[in-house]
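Researcher: Sequence of DUF3995 domain-containing protein follows. Predict its structure.
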Amino acid sequence: MIHRTGRVFGMTITPKQRAALTDAVRGGTESLFRRAATAAFLWALVFTAFHFYWFAGGRFGLGDGPKMIPETGTTKDLIWAFVITSMFVVGIFLPVALTRPWGRRIPRWITVCCLWIGSALLVVRGGAGLLDTALRETGLADRGLTGLTYQQITGDAHPSLNTKVSGICIDAYFILGGLLYGRTVLLHRRLVRGADEG
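Model: Prediction complete. Tokens:
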């Protein structure tokens, strides 16, 4: 750890050594930050592409239950799909906004707050889905967290292993996205603090 007193891990260093060490730490953090932001961007791109595919009627990744495709039959369903998909599209650009010059037009606190909120929502959504499945599969709660039966969710009272595994993978993918968004924000904060101290 670099301290203002000129000591690193208890050893005295010269100002020149301190500057070199600070630059090295900042460079390493910046590299980690850029990789995390890129990973979050790619995650969101795949996430959004799959949702467009599913809204268009695609089935891959949803299992084989009859009610697995998101419904868009009513105006309410279409509005909901539009709002959710718009959030996904915004989510693609948020991590990149912290790394690109055009992103400076957006106040940093807005970008960071949106990423924190997105991170929390994704982790909670994925975690709740995994817990819901675990409760059903262990027999602790036949209706899981939601109070709905498998019949109500998937259209099949006894969904196939394919459908169950697809649901678990989707829930895990939500968690992965939340962790990637969270890591991006944490590394951004470390980078900003390092610049303030430098």
